[in-house]
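just leaving the lab so this will be short. what follows is a protein written twice so to speak, once as letters and once as structure tokens for the fold. can you read through it and tell me how you think this chain folds. anything you notice is useful, everything is just below:
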Amino acid sequence: MFSAKTQSQSILQALAAMLLFANMAAAQTATDRAALTFNGSAKLLTGPKGVSVLWLTPAQIGQAGSVFTTDRVVSNPTYAFATFFQFEMTDPGPGGASDGMTFVLQAESASALGGSGGCLGYAGTLSSGCAPPSGGIMPSVAVEFDTWHNVGVDYNDNHVGILTDGQFIEIDPQTPYGVTNCQPTGAFGCMSNGDVWSVWIEYDGASLNVALADNSTTRPANIISYPIDIPTLLGNNSAFVGFTAGTGAGYENHYILDWQFVAAPADSKEQ
């Protein structure tokens, strides 16, 4: 993981990133919006308290949206990074809360977008279908936050997992708080319950670690700690970083309320 020195630098970089993100809602100029590229249904909103939020999809059927850094984020050869963000999924449809969202590192483009529905704006194929037809985002690595059970494809209706190369093959899927049967709105532990969820994701050059908490900013134990070679999957040490989401016959709002991302600098000798 990062050393104390790198962690200190990370805090400063994260604060700078948050200031940029916050300022984008107040001044809707091309320059202010250049840091992020919005695709499909994704928009930048000013919330009720004047704070910027990313709105990946509205609570409407058949939506797909993505937001990525306009420029590639350059990391060191190990691709070590740390990110923290908070999300909220609200206003589920009568058919259920669906389908979920992903956090993505990808080398395709800032305008990359997969299919709607169970493809979560990330994947391009799913046995139950993704509409409109679209290729998956690749090369890429994603962490999914899935709120709908596509039978034969998904683990359950409330799970976190790893996806790669725009394919919907779930790697090491895990269930937050062990809670399932979350439709239509869910209780504590259901990601679609309308609470503010906090997420911590880190990669140390060898393992991808994921932790998340319902209505808390206290980090719990990792729900996922999975060995994966991100530099080889992406093919280089730079990537577009961001989020995707999708709705199908069921729907929900997918919001990113805040986001901090720090990559170990390219000239760092720390591993």
Remarks:
- The first helix runs from residue 4 to 26.
- Residues 69 and 231 are 18 Å apart (CA to CA).
